[in-house]
Amino acid sequence: MNSFSRRAFLGTVALGLAGCSAENRLILPTDPMVSRTESARGGSGRARAVTLTATRSQIDLGGPVVETWTYDGALPGREIRVGAGDLVEARLVNRLPAETSIHWHGLALRNDMDGVPLVTQAAIKPGEDFTYRFVAPTPGTHWLHPHTGTQLDRGLYAPLIVEDSAEPGRYDAEWVVVLDDWLDGTGTNPDEVFAGLRRRGGHSMHGMTGLGGDVPHPHHLINGRVAAAPVTFAAKPGHRLRIRFINAAADTAYRVALGGHRMTVTHTDGFPVTPADTDALVIGMGERYDVLITLADGVFPLVALAEGKNANAQAVVRTGSGAVPDVRPAELDGKVVTYDQLKAVHSLGVRKPDLVHRVALTGGMMSYEWGINGRAGDLTPARVRSGQRVRLEFVNTTMMWHPMHLHGHTFQLNGPRKDTVIVRPGQTVACEFDADNPGQWMVHCHNAYHAEAGMMSVLGYEESR
Ligand code: C2O
Ligand code: CU
Q1: Which-ligand-closest: CA of 451?
Q2: Is 228 exposed, middle or buried (0-12, 13-18, 19+ CB in 10 A)?
Q3: Looking at the chain, which terminus has fewer C-beta neighbours within 10 angstroms, N or C?
Q4: How confident is the model at residue 21 (pLDDT cuts 50, 70, 90)?
Q5: Whose alpha carbon is nearest atom 3 of ligand 1?
Q6: What is the pLDDT of residues 204-259, one digit of tens each?
Q7: Which segments of the chain belong to CATH 2.60.40.420?
Q8: The CATH number of the domain covering residues in 173-341
Q9: CATH placement of domain 355-461
Q10: Are the C-beta atoms of residues 92 and 52 closer than 8 Å to each other?
């Protein structure tokens, strides 16, 4: 279904190219405008070359051993860390038995490097390779993953950290915490699970308003480990620890807290917010939060509850001796900061939108058909033009929650800036951005199964005439 619609999209593009369309020409990834926009970004003059080999691997999750697909046999994949303005030269070698690509989630990068097969590039075939070359424009906690089928629900993900040279020294230690739900190689795989959902429909595990998912994942991981075999982060009492949380799950929101501590939220999806204290955070798929924590003396569990799933992932912070306390951190039941309690440091100024796109989230569990504006997997672009202030209105008409993600831009919510936003059942969420990155950009649900079932669309820049 998706491949069909993508072909339809390419047909639209071809029409635009031939000039037969009554509408303005679309700015395709290959358009000179895309390179011109990249040149205008300038850069640090530094380059960072990496190679990622997507390959079949056997991974020990800390007890369960699974056959899966990873980058270079590591779970999570090795972190890529660059400075803002650096040129990233990332070669992807595809040793998988399937086509793939890499999407750089959170980066407002040049459109032809965005890694969406048939929208921004041709899929990379088994045995082939492709080198991504782009300037990492702004600092922040981001990540990378494929954009093909349900590959996101295998082991193909890694942190992408863009450092901010203007903020050194406000913390003593830093820890990247990647959350993931796991089913691959446990007697099934994401493709089989997706096929089953389409045959039988989903089964909502958490009623109408919670953040439960559709898919039973037997394991929940922090940095690739099940709760029974947690990773330990060692630090000193009194140290200020920066944690960069990334939710790389396919179908699970996590409620996270560090036992015995409050957290100060400093960034949402890579963008700074006025520091705000909280006991716990709820993190949807694709979302990132950075926090600062002043560490006490002892041993503390970092717990990630799988919302609506009665399961959890765990890690440990150790600044002293002793055993990990075997109690559920009380902070999990404490204050959870909400979007509207956070405020971007660099807000987009108030301006009347030039354009409003209504993005209705549609579909349901029964037939496991998800869509946008009533259409499943329709990649005919909704049009925008450079220079416009664009308002997206996500209207959730379904009984499930959806973490909605826009590629290539960071939008302004009522409060923080983000690129992925949780939209609860029945809720309408408005976000605005300035159209300043020409090309064709995905807008989709970051539930990997919802997206594959059709909850995806494209926002396409057109030429102004
Ligand atoms: Cu993590 Cu299309 O995105
Ligand atoms: Cu969804």
Answers
A1: 2
A2: exposed
A3: C
A4: low
A5: 105
A6: 554 445 687 878 899 999 999 999 999 999 999 999 999 999 999 999 999 999 99
A7: 40-163, 173-341, 355-461
A8: 2.60.40.420
A9: 2.60.40.420
A10: yes
